[in-house]
Design a protein that fits this description.
204 residues; mainly alpha
Length: 204
C-alpha cells in the first residue's frame, strides 16, 4: 500500500510539474510548447490510471490554447472533456474555472448573451480574489459586446476595486484597457487616459 501510494504521488507530482511548465510557457506566448506539456501531463495521468483534478486542469488548458489560436471547433472538444472529467470527480471547486472557460468560448463564438450567462454563474462560484477579478473582467467584455456600457462599467470598476484591495497589480492593465474601450464606445475623447494608465502599470 505504501509503494502504491508513493507511485501515485510520483505520477501526480509529474503531472502537476508538466502543467506548471505549460502555464509558464503559455504566459510567455509559447502556445505550441505549452500545449505539448499539457498533453504530457495527460499521458502521465493515463499511465497512472487514476483520475484527479490534474486531468481536468490539463484538458481545460489545452482548450484555452486551442481557443486562443482560433481553433474553436477543436477547443470545444477539450472543453467538453474537461466538463466530463469535472462531473465524474464531482469537483465543485472547478465551477469557477469551467464556467469562465465556457463564457470565453461563447464570446469567441460571438454568442455574447450565452457567454454572459456562464460568466455570471462562474462569478457566483468564485472563491478567491483573482478568479473574481478575471471573471468580472470577462463579464464586462461580454456586456460591452452587447452595448450594455453602463453594466460593463460597473463590472470593470468592481474588478478594479477588488484588484486594488487584494494587491493584484498584474490585473490592473486589463481593468484599464476594458474601461478605455467602454469610454471609446461612448465616443468620449478621454479614453486615452485609461490606455495610458494601463501602459504605465505595465512599465512599472
Amino acid at each position: 500500500e505504501v509503494l502504491f501510494a508513493l507511485r501515485g504521488a510520483w505520477f501526480q507530482g509529474a503531472a502537476e510539474a508538466a502543467i506548471g511548465a505549460g502555464n509558464v510557457l503559455e504566459r510567455q506566448g509559447g502556445w505550441d510548447d505549452a500545449e505539448q506539456w499539457y498533453r504530457r501531463a495527460l499521458d502521465v495521468l493515463e499511465v497512472d490510471g487514476r483520475a484527479g483534478p490534474e486531468t481536468w486542469q490539463a484538458q481545460l488548458n489545452i482548450h484555452i490554447v486551442l481557443r486562443s489560436a482560433g481553433s474553436l471547433e477543436e477547443s470545444l472538444v477539450w472543453l467538453k472533456k474537461a466538463s466530463d472529467s469535472i462531473e465524474k470527480l464531482g469537483d465543485e471547486t472547478a465551477a469557477q474555472f469551467l464556467e469562465n472557460a465556457w463564457g470565453q468560448f461563447h464570446m469567441a463564438s460571438g454568442a455574447f448573451s450565452e457567454a454572459e450567462r456562464h460568466l455570471r454563474v462562474g462569478l457566483s462560484a468564485a472563491t478567491d480574489a483573482r478568479a473574481h477579478v478575471t471573471i468580472r473582467l470577462n463579464l464586462a467584455e461580454a456586456l460591452l459586446a452587447q452595448d450594455h456600457t453602463l453594466e460593463a462599467t460597473e463590472e470593470a470598476r468592481e474588478a478594479e476595486r477588488v484588484a486594488l484591495v487584494s494587491g493584484i497589480v498584474r490585473k490592473l492593465p486589463e481593468v484599464y484597457r476594458i474601461l478605455g474601450r467602454i469610454v471609446s464606445a461612448e465616443d468620449n475623447p478621454d479614453a486615452f487616459v485609461f490606455f495610458e494608465r494601463a501602459l504605465d502599470i505595465v512599465r512599472e
